[in-house]
Amino acid sequence: MTATMEALGEHQDVCLGELHHEQFLHLGNLDDIEKAIEYGNRALDLTPSEHPRVPTQLTCLGAYYNDRFRQLDNPEDMEKSIDCHKRALGLTPEDHPEFAYRLGNLGISHSVRFRHLGQLEDLEKSIDCKARVVALTPDGHPDLPNWHATLGVSYADRYRCLGELDDLEKWIESDSRALALTPDDHPDLPERHANLGMSYGVRYQRLGELGDLNKSIDHKTRALELTPNGHPDLSYRHADLGASYGTRYQRLGQPEDLDKWVECDSCALANVMWYSISTFGETRRP
User: Fold this and answer.
1) Do 115 and 36 sit in the same domain of this protein?
2) Taxonomically, which superkingdom (predicted)?
3) Which of 34, 79, 136, 150 gives 20 to 30 Å between its CA and that of 174?
4) Sequence-ordered list of residues with C-beta below 8 angstroms from that of 113, at least 6 positions apart, any chain
5) How many independent structural domains does the chain possess?
6) Would you say the C-alpha torsion 252, 254, 260, 266 has a positive or negative sign?
7) Rounded to 10 degrees, what is the CA torsion of 200, 201, 202, 203?
């Protein structure tokens, strides 16, 4: 009877934790993520350590701690998140269908801690985890473009830290694969073009090859074309494309690049003003 009651309590706590987490993601109320963590820990305490649900519970709890870290910037939450994801992965056989997903969660947590503390060891662990996830994910899997994209972010971080050309090449390769695998109607397509445009722009700055600058402009142009009016990134994408036209004008001296540079900067300014006014109006509504 006691075991049955504990099982019911564990199930209830799991459900309540997931519910509060969903509410937090939707509404952003800190009280919800606090309750999600409370219920997640309680469910884990009520579950026998050898139970097959434990890795899933640890994965969820790791996500809750990660979300609270993003809100409060408390390093202790990041440590707990990484610990949960490590334990979940350690309890998951390599042939388990969730192994790659849990490995990816650990890699992302190391990325977040790297961004917070700047320790290269975390970045190395993040790249190792993400690269392995990419290798384990079969062709055609809907998550594969995202894993290529997030791996590209980590290569970009390491390139900025160490300046190794090999990381820049891997950054471009990851962004290229992410874009190639993204369907034409996918909402992430503009961002994928923008990311690849950025990485080509960085390689142009490093090597000075005009072909990279042209590719950067092509992808930034496509990203801008796919970005709807009113999007918060619209102004930045105008400005970013304008900067690339400015670079090419300084390199080649072609008047049309100067015209496009001015046009992009003007559109960027206009969109900043529109977005600021629009947002201000929304904040004043009762």
Assistant:
1) yes
2) Eukaryota
3) 79
4) 78, 82, 119, 122
5) 3
6) positive
7) 50
**pTM of this structure:** 0.88
Q: Are residue 215 and residue 231 in the same domain, yes or no? A: no
Q: In angstroms, what CA-CA distances link 282 with 29, 74, 181, 276?
A: 20, 31, 37, 10
Tens place of pLDDT for every residue, the chain, 286 residues?
344 434 444 567 888 889 999 999 999 999 999 999 999 999 999 999 899 999 999 999 999 999 999 999 999 999 999 999 999 999 999 999 999 999 999 999 999 999 999 999 999 999 999 999 999 999 999 999 999 999 999 999 999 999 999 999 999 999 999 999 999 999 999 999 999 999 999 999 999 999 999 999 999 999 999 999 999 999 999 999 999 999 999 999 999 999 999 999 999 998 875 444 343 333 333 3
Same domain flag for 116 and 157: no
**DSSP H helical segments within the chain, as ranges?**
2-27, 30-46, 54-72, 75-90, 99-117, 120-136, 144-162, 165-180, 189-207, 210-226, 234-252, 255-283
The verdict on 120 and 35 lying in the same domain is yes
CB contact set of 6 (below 8 Å; sequence gap of 6+)? 46
In whole angstroms, how large is the CA radius of gyration of the chain? Answer: 23
Q: Which domain holds residue 240?
A: 227-286
- What's the chain's length in residues? 286
Q: Is the dihedral of CA 150, 155, 158, 163 positive or negative?
A: negative
119 in the same domain as 3: yes
